[in-house]
Amino acid sequence: MLNETGLAELMRLEGEDFVRTAYRLILHREADAEGLSSHLRAMEQGVSKEQFALSLRVSPEGMLAGEAISGFRTKNIAATTLLQYNGEAFVTAIWLAMLGRTPDPGELAENLSTLVKGTSREVVLASVAASSEAKAHGTVMTGLKPKLLRRKVINGLRHIPGMNRLLNVLRQPLALPGKVWRRFRNLSLFRRTRTAIGNLLHINRLYMRVQALENDQTVRDLREEVATLRSRLQLKELLEENNAPRTNVAYKKFEDEMRGSREEIMERLTCYEGVVRQVRETLGENLFALDLGCGRGEWLELMQTRYKIKALGVDSDPSMLKECEEKGLLTIRADLLTYLRNCQSASVDIITLFQVAEHLPFNVLSDTLTECCRVLRNGGALIVETPNPENMIVGACNFYMDPTHITKLPPPLLRVFVEGAGFENAEIMRLHPYQAIHVNKEDNNNDALRELSDFFNHEADYAVIAFRNG
Prior knowledge:
The chain is of the alpha/beta class and 470 residues long. The protein has three domains: 4-142, no CATH class; 146-213, no CATH class; 260-467, Rossmann fold (3-Layer(aba) Sandwich). The protein contains 25 helices and nine strands. It has helices at residues 4-12, 15-27, 33-44, 49-57, 60-65, 79-83, 87-99, 105-116, 121-129, 132-137, 146-157, 163-171, 178-185, 188-213, 217-243, 249-259, 262-269, 273-283, 298-305, 318-326, 336-341, 362-375, 392-396, 411-420, 447-457, and strands spanning 76-78, 140-142, 288-292, 310-315, 331-333, 348-354, 376-387, 424-431, 461-467. The strands form two sheets. A seven-stranded mixed sheet has the order 5-4-3-6-7-9-8, with helices on both faces. A two-stranded parallel ribbon has the order 1-2. Helix 7 (87-99) packs across helix 8 (105-116) and helix 11 (146-157) crosses helix 14.
């Protein structure tokens, strides 16, 4: 655990010594050259040591390391700095900035549950900032201004006919002696009553404004347009719901049967050992990997047991994540593109998408690949594996055996997508030969038969492999 003494020693350091020590204390590894230079550059441009330590702790790798911190101090922090995070990272960032410590499991679970139920992050942030513990800690948060909001409400009330008179009555001593009036005015019941009356009158004022707009033609036109758009949105959501995969036990059983056994898939994935070796030769032994759409976790298990690499799986299917959890694999339930957008730049060494691209619309796939390029370190690798529609049986039949497949991607097209996202010299690796039509020696002389057989004997899958350089 990183306590007050350790933090004080860390904050006394400067420049490169500070960044390297922060990496060791928070991420439990040495800083790589690219991360070191980018962080030093950011600090030269005004990022404080406290902001850097906070961002390091709530980065994907920092959340995975899970270093407990107490005694964290920062004089002030902008609400926008905290609101850039989501989920567990958001709660952890609040606790560190406003309370000076990481949340315990109960606090974390309670606040995540509050967010899931629909409470806005601003409300959660404001409630923590208003707590006695936050006030005792002393960090000043800018960007949320309740006093200014209250002043605006009071000024708004004065525009209601007769409101000035009522406010003046509430403020007058009612002919009571000054000392008695001051005591009465400070009673909490009186203050709450006055606030409640003000709120009700403000609501009434807003209601009267809405009523006044009822006969406005522009408002009526806008209301009709909103109703039309709402209908279209409801139809779109209904279609998406009907076409969405059913992530229940029956669907998982179906995928288990169609995908193959866990042992079989792990054996297939060993074909990428050369990619792992190349990244390790470039970036060293201490690597961090993201498996997007991790499913049952075959690649995560292979990384953990065979390659000794720290890896995190991201998936939205709870039944798949449960199986990973039972095997002791590190996972998080999230939409993969949303998760990537919350990742720190140049923070991951290997990103994999096995049998995922075919589930994504073109625009989502394009954005995902762009984010992968941003999140990877220089020298890091991207592996995207997908069914090969060059094979006629795969393209015309087997592709549709999974009802959640939506996009067929010929190898040259996916390579263009990957290189368009910022990667250079992407390579295509064709996998899993498919011998549908046997061609004997005599048939080899028949050009038409040989050409026809090629359409059915293409490899069933392929992968595009690319490294980030620059």
